Amino acid sequence: MMDNLRTASSHIVLKIILGLIIVSFVLTGVGNYLIGGNSDYAAKVNGTTISRSQLDNAFNNERSRQQQQLGAQFSQLASNPDFMQQMRQQAMSDLIDQTLLQQYMKSLNLQISDAQVKQAIFAQKAFQTNGKFDNARFNGIINNMGYTADQYAAALRKSLATSQLVDAVTNTDFMLKNETAQLVSLVGQKRDFREAVISTNALAAKQTASEDEINSYYQQHKDSFMSPEQFRVSYLALDAASMQQTPTQQQVQAWYDSHKSNYSQPARSRFSVIQVKTEADAQAILAQLKQGADFATLAKQKSIDPISARQGGDMGWLEPDTLPDELKNAGLTEKGQLSGVIKSSVGYLIARLDDVQPEQVQPLSAVYNTVAQAAEQDAAVSAFYKLQQKVSDAATNDNSSLAGAASVAGVKPVETDWFSRDSVPDALNFDPVKQAIFGGSLLGSNGGAGNNSDIITVDGDRAFVVRISEHKAQAVKPLDQVKTQIADRIKQDKALQAARAQATSLLADLKQGKTDSFDAAGLKFGASETLTRNSQNALTSDVFNLSLPQDGKSSYGSGEDMQGNVVIIALDKVEAGALPTAQVQQLAAGVTQNNAQLVFDALLQNLRHDAKIKLGAAAQSQ
Question: What's the gap between Cα 223 and its chain centre?
Answer without folding.
Answer: 33
